[in-house]
Design a protein that fits this description.
alpha+beta; 4-stranded mixed beta sheet; binds protoporphyrin IX containing FE; monooxygenase; Cytochrome P450; heme binding
């Protein structure tokens, strides 16, 4: 008779586990043998994956460029435990994200999203019905045809930014920051913040700071590797991360609810200009269900974060380029003076007559894109591309920076001398604009930036207004000598120039606030 004691059960369990382990290994082995190879890539080691092959893991795009010369335009690697596919050419990016968008429009999952309420933000939402709903909510107010409605708001926001430069030129970053804060809150909530200490700006910025301070690559990797850390109670001494998550999530929900409610109340008295919240609620004509209402609240809150860092970063790149290239600045200013004159400031009607200013904007987006690696996508199913196997669920990164810079290597005619700031590359010999509108900087396919039309209008008016009224020069030391500017860029998902010394000087006559008010038409309370 068989003794069915504990030893027997343990032995049977061990046997079954071994057999199932062997079967699963055999299946994986067979799958691997029967499918095409993965794209080539750097060696991968246990735990760290291919991280050691990157010279500077905080600026991975530089390492991806180096990989390109060995492994080509499509690379497979592992960053710690995350498998990634790096796309290193515009052609491959177009093939995958545009032409196969049904497969390449998902976003990588992370256990960090939900604790910080990032699961409510469209940019990292999985490809599916919830994302579609959010995308429609954004598309309605920010589609190309709707953007001219916001021209007055964009002009006002740009003019208020100019008054900031006049009053305190050294604080240029914070004036650039105020510009998107002002136009995005107007276009989303019909709300114009008066100062940078405004309660709504403050609340949203607080959330953005909390989330970005705690969601660095290192922290994410640690949490992904040891997910139990997320279960620590908030009172636990080492649970600072958990406390930050609770804090940021509370901020997210309370600020989004209050701001939304404010618009609804004003709508009931008919005092709301066109904006994301009102347009979407009007579209539902009183039939908005809870899911839709919540999605509008979330999308409205998220718009600020999406618009703010990208717009500020791009304007900082513009300012840096002007300091380094006074000849470009002077040429643009001569054009503006000729077309607009000195008695008024540029407006959107002047845009077609100012191709050189347009070319400066495109070159700014090309020279140093704020998303050097775009925003990563993921695959919904496996795929085979150019004979390589692309696994399901893999993170797919478009090396936008690479697509810009090494276009020289692959297409000498497109962006020769890519490190140089040359707006002329976007102009024909007769001075008219080429068809290259630098759409690359806004991503690809179904997940491409849904705010790109308003971003385009905002960047243009900010650049044109600045050049019309101010010049930026290198700062001077105590001997009157120019202080050299050595460009340094921040690491991270978004990258922008670190603060640099410069002198911003007015170029309009009687450079006073009164004169600026005359030129802009702003009244004292709007400054
Ligand atoms: C200089 C300005 C901007 C740049 C360079 C920029 C760039 C980008 C990029 C590269 C993406 C990711 C695309 C992808 O996943 O392939 C993105 C997504 C997005 N952008 Fe922008 N953006 C800018 C301004 C704005 C503005 C003003 C808004 C205003 C609402 C906005 C809203 C969004 C949203 C909601 C997404 C997520 C789209 C989705 O996942 O479906 N962006 N942007």
């Amino acid at each position: 008779m068989i003794d069915a004691g504990p030893v027997f059960y343990l032995a049977t369990l061990a046997f079954l586990l071994t057999v199932s382990g062997l079967l699963s290994w055999c299946r994986k082995f067979w799958d691997r043998r029967s499918r095409p190879p993965l794209p080539p890539g750097p060696p991968s080691f246990p735990i760290v994956g291919s991280v050691l092959s990157l010279d500077d893991p905080t600026r991975p795009w530089l390492g991806f460029n180096v990989w390109k010369y060995t492994y080509g335009d499509i690379i497979y690697a592992r960053l710690l435990s995350k498998p990634i596919v790096v796309v290193n050419s515009e052609e491959v990016a177009h093939d995958l994200f545009d032409l196969r968008s049904a497969i390449y429009s998902d976003k990588p999952r992370s256990i960090m999203h939900e604790p910080f309420s990032l699961d409510c933000t469209i940019g990292v939402m999985p490809y599916g019905d919830r994302w579609r709903l959010h995308r429609r909510i954004f598309h309605q107010p920010f589609r190309r045809a709707a953007v001219p409605i916001y021209y007055p708001v964009l002009l006002r926001s740009a003019h208020r930014m100019l008054s900031g430069f006049l009053q305190d030129p050294a604080e240029y970053s914070s004036h650039f920051q105020m510009f998107p804060s002002s136009f995005i809150l107007s276009t989303v909530y019909d709300y114009e913040p008066k100062t940078k200490d405004d309660h709504l700006v403050h609340g949203i910025l607080r959330y953005v700071e909390l989330a970005s301070a705690n969601l660095g690559l290192g922290a994410v990797m640690v949490m992904e590797t040891f997910p139990l850390l997320l279960r620590l109670p908030t009172w636990f001494p080492l649970a600072t991360f958990k406390r930050a998550a609770v804090n940021s999530s509370q901020t997210f929900h309370s600020v989004k609810d209050v701001a939304f409610q404010d618009v609804k109340e004003r709508m009931s008295t008919g005092r709301v200009a066109p904006c994301l919240v009102a347009d979407n609620l009007n579209r539902m004509s009183g039939f908005a269900d809870d899911i839709f209402t919540e999605a509008v609240k979330e999308a409205a809150f998220v718009a600020f974060g999406a618009a703010s860092e990208t717009t500020v970063g791009t304007l900082l790149v513009f300012l840096l380029a002007m300091v380094l290239h006074p000849e470009v600045q002077a040429k643009a200013q001569a054009d503006i003076d000729r077309v607009v004159g000195k008695d008024r400031l540029p407006d959107f009607d002047d845009r077609p007559a100012l191709p050189y200013v347009e070319a400066i904007m495109r070159e700014t987006l090309r020279w140093h894109p704020v998303f050097p690696l775009g925003v990563p996508h993921a695959t919904t199913t496996s795929d085979i591309y150019k004979g390589y196997f692309i696994p399901e669920g893999v993170t797919v990164i478009a090396n936008i920076w690479q697509a810009h810079t090494t276009a020289m290597t692959h297409n000498e005619k497109k962006y020769p001398s890519p490190d140089e700031f040359k707006p002329e590359r976007f102009l024909h010999e007769d001075g008219s604009l080429t068809s290259d509108s630098m759409s690359l900087a806004f991503g690809w396919g179904r997940r491409a930036c849904v705010g790109r039309h308003i971003a385009d209008a905002a960047l243009w008016i900010a650049i044109a207004s600045f050049l019309a009224t101010f010049s930026v020069h290198k700062a001077l030391d105590e001997h009157g000598e120019e202080i050299p500017v050595i460009p340094k860029f921040s690491p991270g998902l978004t990258s922008h120039p670190e603060t640099f010394p410069c002198r911003i000087v007015p170029r309009f006559q009687d450079a006073s606030l009164e004169k600026l008010m005359q030129l802009t038409g702003l009244v004292a309370e709007q400054l």
